[in-house]
Amino acid sequence: MTSDTGASHISSRDNPLLKDLRKLAQDPGAYRKLGRLWLEGDHLCRAALARGVKPAIAVFSESFWPQAPAEWASSAIKTVVVADDLLRGISGLESPAPMGFVLDLPSRPELIPEAPSVVLDRLQDAGNAGSILRSAAAFGFTQVIALKGTAALWAPKVLRAGMGAHFGLRLIEGVDADVLDGLKVPLVATSSHHGEWLHKAELPHPCAWLMGHEGQGVSPVLEARATHHIRIAQPGGEESLNVAAAAAICLHASGAALQAK
């Protein structure tokens, strides 16, 4: 490793930072062990900067470094330039990005009892989890509570599916259902077979939407806690909707109902 123009250069595959980046890019739970996140690509990095996040390390490929925007390099505490083939070897993308940020893992925020929230109950698919975070941010839900058994919210695939939504949300993950006792908003459970029709329901706001497991739906324990039960009309006759699609419809309906008041 050498240093010039304010950047450190890495050319060894065995460099400790590269070893950590490989773990962060390829192991969904590595961020919990290492206390850091790896954001790959300019879109996620821009989203983090727009929310005032200061990267611990900015990482650039050798070929991209000469043309990297100055604000990206100056935004981080430390800047590192990596040989192109080594950076490609880290990537979890089909088309590896020429840059990324290392962030310190945010500490778990305190639950806000009155916040409009989304509760994720054992969602397994990273794409679904990330998509729901994106919908939550878009429709004014500021807090997401991921119960134990849900995909790791800061995992690389969830980050990519969230498209930057993570940085505008309070994310509370890996908790038991008892944490919901701290909420002071109504709990609204989604179902494919019973409850009020969404398009006819008087939706409370703020509230906490309960989005359940892809195959099993909201657990009976959570359903029993809910003050409202909602289902979505499906005139096409499908048995159920993908949970991310259902969440987008429900959260939009909540946001639209609030704006109409």
Walk me through the structure.
The chain is of the alpha/beta class. The chain has helices at residues 16-26, 30-34, 42-50, 70-75, 84-90, 126-138, 156-162, 220-225, 243-260; strands at 2-4, 7-10, 36-40, 57-61, 78-82, 99-104, 117-120, 143-147, 170-175, 187-190, 196-197, 208-211, 228-231. The protein has a 7-stranded parallel sheet. It has a 6-stranded mixed sheet with strand order 1-2-5-4-6-3. The mean pLDDT is 92.
Key structural traits:
261 residues; alpha/beta; 7-stranded parallel sheet; 6-stranded mixed sheet
Radius of gyration: 21 Å
Number of strands: 13
Helix content: 25-40%
Q: Beta fraction of the residues?
A: 15-25%
Distance between the termini: 60 Å
Overall residue-averaged pLDDT value: 92
Number of helices: 9
- Main sheet: which strands, in order across? 9-8-7-12-10-13-11
Low-confidence stretches: none
The helix/strand class is alpha/beta
Q: What does the main sheet amount to?
A: 7 strands, parallel
What gross morphology would you assign?
A: elongated
Question: Can you lay out the helices and strands and say which pair or pack?
Answer:
Layout: E1 2-4, E2 7-10, H1 16-26, H2 30-34, E3 36-40, H3 42-50, E4 57-61, H4 70-75, E5 78-82, H5 84-90, E6 99-104, E7 117-120, H6 126-138, E8 143-147, H7 156-162, E9 170-175, E10 187-190, E11 196-197, E12 208-211, H8 220-225, E13 228-231, H9 243-260
Parallel strand pairs: 2-5, 4-5, 7-8, 7-12, 8-9, 10-12, 10-13, 11-13
Antiparallel strand pairs: 1-2, 3-6, 4-6
Helix pairs in contact: 1-5, 6-7, 6-9
